[in-house]
Amino acid sequence: MRKLVLFLSSVLVFAFAACGNNAAVSKIIGGGATFPKELYDAMFMKYKQISGVEVNYQGLGSGAGQKGISQMTLEFGASDNPFSDQDAAKFKNEHNGTELIHIPTCIGAIAIAYNLPIKDIPLNLTPEVIADIFMGNITKWNDARIAGLNPSVKLPDLDIVVVHRNDSSGTTFGFTDYLAKAAPKWLESMGKGAKDVAWKVGKGGQGNPGVAAEVDKTEGSIGYMELSYAENGGFAYAAVRNKSGNYILPSIEGVIAAGDTDIPDHTRCSIADTASPNGYPIASFTWILLYQEQNYNKRTFEQAKALVDLIWWMTHDGQALAKPLHYAPIPLSAAAKVEALLKSVTYNGQPVMK
User: Fold this and answer.
1) Mean pLDDT, the chain, as a whole number?
2) How far apart are alpha carbons 113 and 212 in whole angstroms?
3) Residues 48-105: pLDDT tens digits?
């Protein structure tokens, strides 16, 4: 009898342990934007140290993040361009009424970096001149229009080589969204806020790292990239004239000034072409995308909770990692809306966060 009791006890212990192991979540799968990847890599490394949960994140571009979350191959997507109202409604209709929540995780600057034998003095550029360069209308670095903005700089007689993204890119969205607002000729010729642009000139790179690599190896090149890639690559980058007429270098302070504005409850918005006198004008939030109702595709409650816990940490304690990596933390105006959105996430209609 005693042996039977011991046997049954061991079976129960084994069963309990097995259930516990099944319930535990050790890995979360995400992917998408390269714009915040420097920050996300640091966040996910730190999160594994404190939680034991590994986040497998692949920086494949915002388009891949949107596709992955839509097709349920990712637990979260990452994108630098938010869904439009029309796209959000379409997503909800195609996914049995489930909302796609956008959680901003930081604000970043898109730097206009270049490869020239001019390092000490940053070039001044206007939105109109940037548009003409990237449309192929200005082809020489010593063009009179660039020279007129930089009278103290001896510009080289070099061909301009435009470098752009060749993938579906939220960084491209942020860059073109800005130009569409600030340079009317871009809107007329190239369209507004496009992820995939019919470039007239230049060569492409895959992701922010690909653009940085092309600029680095090509004399006379110019490209747009998230500020951390420009800083880490040691590139020179331009001061861009903002709406107030001030030439502003991309910086944490300039991005914070751009993001200091009221945003909608759903957080899907643009902060490009800021009206702030000290704001850097080519700035953007970047978002984590997740389903509001988490009971889909055979997901468990534990998986849903692990995901919400991760994103809560990213938007709270994890924000301390932003500034050292040249990103701006989400502003207070956005923080309360982030919390409300995360508290709205459900599993079988019940809140995941208690």
Assistant:
1) 91
2) 8
3) 999 999 999 999 999 999 999 999 999 999 999 999 999 999 999 999 899 999 999 9
From 75, 31, 78, select the one nearest 309 (Cα to Cα): 75
Following CA atoms 117, 123, 127, 133 in sequence, which dihedral angle do they give, to the nearest 10 degrees?
Answer: -20
Which two structure tokens, joined as six digits, stand for 114?
């270049």
Same domain, 52 and 139: no
Structure tokens at 344: 């709205």
Q: Does residue 130 share a domain with residue 104?
A: no
Classify residue 163 by burial, with Cβ atoms within 10 Å: 0-12, 13-18, 19+. buried
Q: From residue 223, give the alpha-carbon distance in Å to each of 41, 192, 218, 247, 285.
A: 23, 19, 11, 18, 20
Q: Both tokens of residue 222?
A: 């110019």
Domain that holds residue 136: 109-251
Percent of the residues in the chain that have a pLDDT greater than 90, as a whole number: 83
Please determine, for residue 18, whether its predicted confidence score (pLDDT) is greater than 90.
Answer: no
Q: How far apart are the first and last CA of the chain?
A: 44
Q: Read off the pLDDT of residues 237-254 as tens digits, 9 standing for 90 and up.
A: 999 999 999 999 999 999
Its pTM surpasses 0.90: no
- Domain count within the chain: 2
User: In this structure, is residue 273 part of a structural domain?
Assistant: no
Mean pLDDT of 129-147: 98
Distance CA 95, CA 354 (A): 25
Beta-carbon-side half-sphere exposure of residue 228 (alpha carbons within 13 Å) = 23
36 and 63 part of one domain: yes
9, part of any domain: no
Name the DSSP letter for residue 325.
G
Give the pair of three-digit tokens for residue 43: 């966040």
Distance CA 321, CA 247 (A): 28
Assess if residue 168 is contained within a domain: yes
Residue 237: closest CA among 228, 245, 284, 246: 228
